[in-house]
Design goal:
Blueprint: H1 45-53, H2 59-66
Length: 70
Amino acid sequence: MVNPGAAGEKKLHSTFSEMPLGQGDLLRIMTPGGGGLGKPADRTREEIDADVREGQVTAEAARELYKWRF
C-alpha cells in the first residue's frame, strides 16, 4: 500500500514491479504470518483463546490443530 490513510492511498496487487515512489511517499508492505514458534500441542488454553480472539487462527483451525473446544 502506498501512503496508507492518506487521501492518495493506493492499494497494490500482491505482485507488482517498478512502482515509482515520490519523495515523502510511505510504502507499507504487509506479509502473511509465519509458521509460528513451537509445537501447537504446547500452547496453553489462554494462548489459544487469545489467538482466536485476535484472528491469528480461526475457531475451526483451533479445534482441528489444538483439539480446542469452546
